[in-house]
Amino acid sequence: MPDMKKAVVIGAGIAGLITARMLSDYYEEVCIIERDELPAEPLNRQGVPQSFHPHRVLPRGGLILEHYFPGYNDELITLGAIPSEKEKIVIANRYGTLVNKADAASPFNIASCSRALLEWVLRQRVQNIDHVSFLTSTEVTGLMVSEDQRSITGVFTKERGPDQPIEMLAADMVIDASGRSSKLIRWLDKIGLSVPEPEVLKVSLGYSTRYYNIPFSIQHEWGTVITESDPEEGIRAGMLWRIENDIAGVLLFNAGGNEYPSTDPDEFQKQIKQLFASDEISALTDQLEPLQGPRGYRISESVRQHFELMEHWPSGLLVLGDSFCSFDPIHGQGMTVAAIEAETIGKCLEAQRVHPEPQFERQVLLRMQQEIEPAWWLSSVADLRWQGVEHVGTSQLKGVSFAQKYINLFVKQAMKRSSQENHNHLFFMQFLMNALILPPSEFFKGDVLNMILNDNGSEEEMELRAELGVEDPGLFQQRIDEIIPSFQLEPDARINKILDSLRLAMSK
Ligand SMILES: Cc1cc2nc3c(=O)[nH]c(=O)nc-3n(C[C@H](O)[C@H](O)[C@H](O)COP(=O)(O)OP(=O)(O)OC[C@H]3O[C@@H](n4cnc5c(N)ncnc54)[C@H](O)[C@@H]3O)c2cc1C
User: Fold this and answer.
1) Residue nearest to atom 37 of ligand 1 (CA)
2) Where is the FAD-binding domain positioned along the sequence (predicted)?
């Protein structure tokens, strides 16, 4: 039963919607303030310019969304989204090409759809909650603060349009979910609070996405193609996938600011041919009917704020989603991380009910940081392979060079075992790590570690051993525990169940 009074959420993007749903368990009244007018149908809107591009939910995000929005995935499928089970998946990288049938027994069935459809389905659910209201076409312009400056007491708002007055909206809790364009730092500055320097990954990434109509005649041959990048060779990543309404998308990506993927249709087609598995993608795209030209998206930085380091973080204020930490979208983490953060806030609110703690909000920020560490670290490790990408900030990123070499060798072994021995457990393990289910520390342990460090004297193995700086195999694990971050994550029964089945499969 809700027992706290009023919460305000800034922004009705994915983070805002999950948060409002979560808060509805604890607050008598929840109000989402959104600067856009919200469309009655699944349509892209101005406030989320990224929505044109593919938006995948990772399995960890899927678990959390099912918890807050039971049956949302089935609802998406009913509306035309493509179920992932039984779909053919082609994965290509520098070590070869693998064709996989998604495992029907897999615990994950994440529907593939447009961001607009996903957002619309979640929004409808939130709109149906009695004590959640939406204030649309209204922008938050600042934070109301108590006289002693220690608590946020609400927000200043302004209806969009000329000459609208500034209004005040009181709340016991304000949660900023206003995305990459958040003004939170400016608002905090206005009330006399300066924030620590964030961690920044200067990533200079480029996307180019093009959509096609899938003719009826080739629908049965369909599959998803994921082609990984090879930054050392300057080879881009690409993806070909299917969404509702018989539409297919092709995405090209690279980081490092060197030669962004093209938005010229002919050049785009040529660049498809430079990908791994270009034959598979070209064979399909040649039969598709383009809906329009490719459209680009560029991001100069991924930013991770460290508000938890502030001595005087005000009570009554929290932040999540892209305004707390934004990611390189190629890893598909943003919405899942927003879900993890919302769930973390929910767990903290639950605990606060039973044992109220002082400095609650700062503790929540700290817990959220711990929970998002795997996502930040994994995407940084991957992005730093591109020349020109740089990490800056006072916090250190541990183990990057070692992890890059280790993951490379892992992928090589996984490809070899999958193609020669029809043994997909290694791929599944890497998939679970990238899905934010398997903690990365598990990837650098025990049997996996022994296998990776015993690659029959290959060049990669030698490089890896040199990076470890020890010869005695008895010291490998100890040395790795020093190199790789320890990742302090809260135990989660759903995740433990999945990991138990992975361990069982690997032991066979
Ligand atoms: C090209 C691209 C592709 C991506 N692909 C994926 C993917 O495959 N998988 C994935 O998980 N993530 C992906 N992401 C990331 C994903 O879009 C975000 O991480 C996710 O939507 C969570 O963002 P958010 O809710 O914090 O912000 P947003 O979704 O950007 O929403 C912010 C909302 O706040 C509103 N707003 C802003 N300022 C104000 C204000 N002052 N007052 C009121 N309202 C305001 C905006 O109008 C908007 O509705 C991608 C991002 C990009 C750029």
Assistant:
1) 178
2) 7-349
Alpha helices, H only, 294-445: 334-354, 360-383, 400-421, 425-434, 440-443
Our mutation pick for probing the ligand 1 site, out of 9, 14, 260, counting the most ligand atoms within 8 A of Cβ, is 14
pLDDT computed for residue 292 by the predictor: 95
Tell me, what's the pLDDT at 137? 98
Comparing 102-116, 118-132, 321-335, 356-370, which segment has the lowest mean pLDDT?
A: 102-116
Pocket probe for ligand 1: among 134, 178, 336, 340, the residue whose CB has the most ligand atoms within 8 Å is 178
Ligand 1 is surrounded, with C-beta below 6 A, by 10-16, 33-36, 47-48, 50, 53-56, 139-140, 177-179, 181, 183, 207, 297, 321-323, 329, 332-336, 338
Q: Tell me how many degrees the CA angle 175-433-230 measures, rounded to the nearest 5.
A: 105
CATH topology match: 6-55+116-199+302-381 vs 83-113+204-299: no
Q: In what order do the strands lie in the sheet with 132-135?
A: 132-135, 27-33, 4-10, 173-176, 317-319
457: left (phi over 0), alpha (psi -120 to 50) or beta: left
Q: Are 377 and 440 in contact (CB under 8 A)?
A: yes
What type of residue is 265?
A: P
* Percent of the chain's residues with pLDDT above 90: 74
Instruction: Give residue-wise pLDDT tens across range 137-167.
Output: 999 999 999 999 999 999 999 999 999 999 9
| Residue 104: band (very low, low, confident or very high) from pLDDT cuts 50, 70, 90 | very low
* Domain 6-55+116-199+302-381 bears CATH identifier 2.160.10.10: no
Report the separation in Å between the CA atom of 13 and the middle of ligand 1, taken as the mean of its atom positions: 6
Domain residue extents for the chain: 6-55+116-199+302-381, 83-113+204-299, 400-507
* CATH topology for the 83-113+204-299 domain: D-Amino Acid Oxidase; Chain A, domain 2 (3.30.9)
Q: Which of 46, 48, 325 for a ligand 1 pocket mutation test, highest count of atoms within 8 Å of Cβ? A: 48
Angle, alpha carbons 345-350-352 (nearest 5°)? 90
C-alpha closest to that of 24 among 160, 99, 133: 133
Tell me the CA–centroid distance for residue 14 and ligand 1, in Å: 7
Taking all residues of the chain, what is their mean pLDDT, rounded to a whole number?
93
Flag whether the pTM goes above 0.90. yes
- Residue 420 corresponds to which tokens in the numbers above? 């020669």
Q: Is 242 exposed, middle or buried (0-12, 13-18, 19+ CB in 10 A)?
A: buried
Q: In this structure, is the dihedral angle defined by the CA atoms of residues 376, 379, 385 and 386, taken in order, positive or negative?
A: negative
Q: Which are the contacts of 167, defined by CB distance < 8 A and separation ≥ 6?
A: 156, 157, 158, 159
